[in-house]
Amino acid sequence: MVVWWLAWAYLLDLAQAFCPPGCSCDDAAPSASCVGMSLNVVPILFNPGLCRLNLAHNSISSIDEAFVFLDKLQELDLSHNLLISVRTGNFKMQSGLLELRLAHNNITSFTSGAFRGLVALRTLDLNHNSLPDLPVGVLDDLPQLTVLHLAHNRLHILTQRTFRGLRGLLLLDLCDNYFRHVPTTAFEDLTSLQTLHLCRNRLTRLDPLAFPTDTLTSLTLDTNNIDSLDKRAFLRLQQLQELRLDCNTLHEVPTEALSLLVTLDFLSLSRNKIKTIGPNAFRGLGRLSTLEISRSPHLESVHPEALDGCRGLQTLTISHNPLLRHLPAGLLTSLHSLRSVDLRANGLQSFPEAEVPWSSLRKMDLRDNPLVCNCSLQWLAELLGSSNTSLAAPDLQCAAPDKLQGLYLSRYWRRQQRAKLGSGWPPDPLGAPWPPQGRPLPNRHIMAEEYVYHTPASITKVPVTKV
User: 13 in helix, strand or coil?
Assistant: First the structure.
């Protein structure tokens, strides 16, 4: 009996100590990493108790029966290899596997039962492959899956019941595929889905009830060709908090469709073809805290009551819209919770002081606007030149008139102050901050325009007579 135990201990030590040449192994974890080793096949003499195995960036083209002795695996990375398919039974012994990464291969198909045995799998990454479709039933063996990445494939259609076994899926990434229509019927089985990415596809419109999953909280539709939304497109999305519609071809704010999203917190409509934002364009969005409308080359005007429907707005970005030359009076004053406003790189020539919601604002960016420096911007110059303001606002440059072009607004304010105070400016750092009435203090510093000090050699020396 003692001999048997000694023999077993000896064999166990051999197994734990073995690590294929070039790989990095940790028997304490236990884990092994063979990244970038130009492997053509999966090494078979790993520690059978491995929990994590990384075989990324190799030249593995087949995995038939490769993991039959690694039944303790929890994480397996086969990304950046040369796999073209996954066959029945490839993972039949991995009942404890939680994470499987097959991204950046050449996978074009799955045979029936390809994922059989993966009853505990939580994350499946199939990004950057060449999948033209997903056969019904191929995902049925993944009852615990919560994250599925299918971006950068060749998918253009998904049929009903494609996801019938994924009742617990929380995140689905379908970006960078070839969808022309939202695969609505395929989503019907995703009763727990919270995050859906459909960015960078070929969608042109959103039909009624396009998204039948009422558990969605985040929806990404950017970089498509969407130019119209049915007013009932988002009818089921009563829990949606984040919506990205930037980089599409919308010609107007889809007010009717958006008004149903009563829980929306973040909305991006940047990079569209919107020309004007009308009154109550965002009605019903009382919980909206962040709104982005940037880089819209056709945007010319915003109605004074455009933001009346989102009085709880905290962060507003209306930037890089070169045709937007002014903001209407009253646009911002009703936003009593506004903390940050980004108006950078528009066509604004002025910005009235009355438009600033002083009670809440903490950050304002007006850079790269063609500001005309005149008396109407004196308040802004004083603000930028002040050291006791709690408002974070980068300095600004004048675009006009010609004699002030390129001058920073804060320096323009200081120049005006020097002109008013005459020879008593700047004040004596050791005396009173302002010259006594009728008695200007002598200059202690000789300064050129814009605070450039004269060199000592340029100062006339005065002889001193000893007493």
Answer: helix
Does residue 61 belong to any structural domain of this protein?
no
- Give pTM, 2 decimals: 0.84
User: Position of tokens 């940037």?
Assistant: 294
Q: Does residue 151 come out as left (phi exceeding 0), alpha (psi in the -120 to 50 range) or beta? A: beta
| Total domains, the chain | 2
The answer to whether position 87 is within a domain reads no
- Same domain membership, residue 358 and residue 377: no
Cα torsion 94, 100, 102, 107: sign: positive
**pLDDT single digits (tens) 170-180:** 999 999 999 99
Read off the pLDDT of each residue in 38-52 and give the average, rounded to a whole number.
90
Q: What are the tens digits of pLDDT across the range 128-154?
A: 999 999 999 999 999 999 999 999 999
Token readout for 349 is 């020539």
Whether residues 284 and 412 share a domain: the answer is no
Residue 177 lies in a domain: no
Same domain, 359 and 375: no
83-114 pLDDT per residue, tens: 999 999 899 999 999 999 999 999 999 988 99
pLDDT attached to residue 422:
60
Instruction: Give the C-alpha distances (Å, rounded to integers) separating 239 from 172, 217, 264, 353, 385.
Output: 17, 6, 8, 38, 45
242: domain CATH number is 3.80.10.10
Domain that residue 360 falls in: 233-370
What is the distance between the terminal CA atoms of the chain, rounded to a whole angstrom?
115
Mean pLDDT of 321-347: 93
347 neighbors 369 (Cβ within 8 angstroms): yes
Same structural domain, 270 and 346: yes
Q: Position 97: which residue type?
A: L
Do 375 and 288 belong to one domain?
no
Burial class (CB in 10 A: 0-12, 13-18, 19+), 122: middle
The pLDDT of residue 390:
65
